[in-house]
Amino acid sequence: MSPPEPTPAPRRPRRLSSRQLVWLDRTLATGLLLPLLLYPAAGLALVALPLSLAQLVPLYWRRTQPVTVFLLVTAASVTQAVLLDAPLYSQVAFPVAVYSVARFASAAWGVAAVTTGVIGAGVAALDWVRAYGTFTLGDLSAYFLTITVIVVAAWALGTLGRTRLAYVEALIERSDQVQREAAQQVSLAASAERARIAREMHDVVAHGLTTIVVQADGARYAAAQRPEVAVQALGDIGETGREALTQMRRLLGVLRDDDSPATAPQPRLGDLVDLVGGADVESELLGLDSPVADGVALTAYRVVQESLSNVRKHAGPGAAARVRVEVAGDAVVVEVLDDGRGAAADSDGQGLGLLGMHERVAAHDGELHAGPRPGGGFAVRARIPR
Description:
alpha+beta
């Protein structure tokens, strides 16, 4: 018996790899810096160049550290408003920073960014109109509305991108859940079929043994009176036994079907190669062929599996992960690092994945540490005694 084939997984939307996203950000920031080469010929104030650099350079990290980049760009823009009474080309960094916060940070930070932008639009409009000596309500409104529209548009585009990503991830999670439920139904159906076969085997064996017992009793009583009947009864006993064994072997052959999901073995350390290979992450796996207790191997596998799942859910788009597993000495050492949002990552407040990892590792007297990395991203490190 072979279980029905599960429904094939839907094709996931094409996305840029983490390396491609890094190069995209570098290209954008570098392209915005190039016009600064014309500053000497434009006759701008000496302070214009450092102010412009302070506004544009942080954009290299706008995807991984959006809040920090926004704060740096805002501080540079405030400094410009104090030192200069004229706009600079580099102020294009502010709407880019607003977009980045709305796109890659939380909704609350997005609202704070657009609010800061609207207030800054009023301050900039007032500063520039006064500098030009034509302080009229019409000029002030024109400047204010133009800057505000740019800031609000950047925030709206970033918010749209963030909500769309959340929607796509929810659809993917729902698809994964449906596939898991379908696989579970297949497994339950296979288990029910095996239970039915086991009942049939019980009936076959019980019937054969009952016949053998009855014929053996008859042969024992007939042996003293009619030996020829006993010989025939013994022949029937052998024939019945052989038939019962044949039926039992057939049914056991079905129960031993290796393709059944109900008999799939628990993951071992060697299965980590397929796990990290399918996740397209950088990996370093050492000593996987060393003898390790089944429970320790399963715990190490689950720690890596749950950590990579958390990277996909919480680290943000384009986050890269690195997995290192080493069997050395008297322990299995597991390390999963990513360069995602780290402490700024969204969380559902439950922490059940990390709690489950802690409980698994603690059951083997091991240690697990999980938390944001100082330079950004998140780290999970575990040491499980062998």
